[in-house]
């Protein structure tokens, strides 16, 4: 979060929080948690303080104390900007809820925007826009698509996906939940239009006007895949393409919430969700997307197509009376 969220309004509490941060940077998370506890005795309604002490307890291995701190945080943070619900859910201490945790994701990327590209591309080896763009171009060649008339880039961020799409699209629209991200990408003049909005709400407001929809490293914050696809398919024109990425896991669960507070989707469940949504799966591949905390993150890359023609019994010229006995 930004510095504004971290001021308690009490000079002594803030000084103790600063010392706690120094201890945490030196690796002594237990001592940092103890000092933050002293700060919170002075300002018990300080939401950011409870967020910090919960994180220190977690890193010190005191999960029960972390959960107790996040329960206090959840009660204080009406807007959900600190993600207490997600943090509790990641330790099986509560439900993750439905859909995107809007307050948390918005605050996270508002804070992250100025250093987003340097961190993601420079330090974490982020590859998703390049990988998705290559897959889209290969499918364009195979399907005989010269260009797209209108594309919608969901979670456009600082325009990493948009930069790769620009030459292939007549009208390119970017949507992001973070105003700071929108401001960063607006400076690049990549998109024909930009909108600050939550993606499912954006999709629900549209009807069959996009022939390409992309979502690079976005649906990992949105929870279950079927509700997103239910909103997305009607927004596509018949024959339109969708390209997106997911983080992957090999278990039987449709999805679970990682300690990173991003969702990982089951490979089989993700493929099933595409079929149930009525999409034709053109590409469905696993790949290394980036690194996180020194470990490679494996994900799913998808390119799918909305059927060009709605198939019905009437279209096929088949009904029960035409079937020979």
TrEMBL record:
<keyword id="KW-0489">Methyltransferase</keyword>
<feature type="domain" description="Methyltransferase type 12">
    <location>
        <begin position="152"/>
        <end position="241"/>
    </location>
</feature>
<keyword id="KW-0808">Transferase</keyword>
<dbReference type="Pfam" id="PF08242">
    <property type="entry name" value="Methyltransf_12"/>
</dbReference>
<dbReference type="GO" id="GO:0008168">
    <property type="term" value="F:methyltransferase activity"/>
</dbReference>
<dbReference type="InterPro" id="IPR011990">
    <property type="entry name" value="TPR-like_helical_dom_sf"/>
</dbReference>
<dbReference type="GO" id="GO:0032259">
    <property type="term" value="P:methylation"/>
</dbReference>
<dbReference type="InterPro" id="IPR029063">
    <property type="entry name" value="SAM-dependent_MTases_sf"/>
</dbReference>
<protein>
    <submittedName>
        <fullName>Methyltransferase</fullName>
    </submittedName>
</protein>
<dbReference type="InterPro" id="IPR013217">
    <property type="entry name" value="Methyltransf_12"/>
</dbReference>
């Amino acid at each position: 979060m930004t510095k504004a969220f971290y001021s308690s309004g009490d000079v002594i509490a803030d000084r103790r929080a600063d010392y706690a941060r120094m201890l945490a940077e030196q690796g002594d998370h237990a001592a940092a948690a103890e000092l933050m506890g002293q700060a919170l005795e002075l300002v018990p309604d300080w939401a950011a303080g409870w967020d910090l002490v919960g994180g220190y307890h977690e890193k010190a291995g005191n999960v029960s104390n972390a959960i107790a701190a996040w329960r206090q945080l959840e009660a204080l943070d009406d807007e959900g900007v600190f993600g207490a619900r997600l943090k509790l859910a990641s330790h099986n201490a509560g439900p993750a809820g439905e859909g995107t945790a809007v307050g948390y994701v918005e605050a996270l990327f508002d804070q992250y925007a100025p250093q987003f590209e340097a961190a993601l591309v420079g330090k974490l080896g982020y590859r998703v826009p390049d990988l998705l763009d290559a897959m889209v171009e290969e499918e364009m060649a195979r399907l005989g698509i010269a260009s797209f008339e209108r594309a919608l880039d969901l979670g456009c961020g600082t325009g990493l996906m948009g930069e790769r799409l620009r030459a292939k699209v007549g009208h390119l629209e970017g949507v992001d939940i973070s105003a700071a991200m929108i401001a960063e990408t607006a400076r690049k003049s990549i998109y024909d239009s930009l909108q600050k909005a939550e993606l499912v709400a954006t999709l629900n407001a549209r009807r069959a006007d996009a022939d390409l929809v992309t979502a690079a490293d976005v649906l990992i914050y949105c929870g279950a895949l079927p509700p997103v696809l239910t909103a997305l398919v009607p927004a596509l024109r018949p024959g339109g393409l969708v390209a997106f990425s997911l983080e992957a896991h090999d278990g039987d669960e449709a999805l679970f919430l990682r300690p990173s507070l991003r969702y990982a989707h089951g490979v089989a469940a993700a493929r099933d969700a595409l079929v149930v949504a009525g999409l034709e799966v053109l590409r469905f591949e696993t790949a290394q997307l980036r690194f996180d905390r020194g470990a490679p993150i494996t994900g799913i890359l998808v390119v799918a197509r909305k059927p060009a023609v709605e198939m019905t019994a009437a279209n096929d010229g088949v009904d029960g009376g035409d079937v020979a006995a």
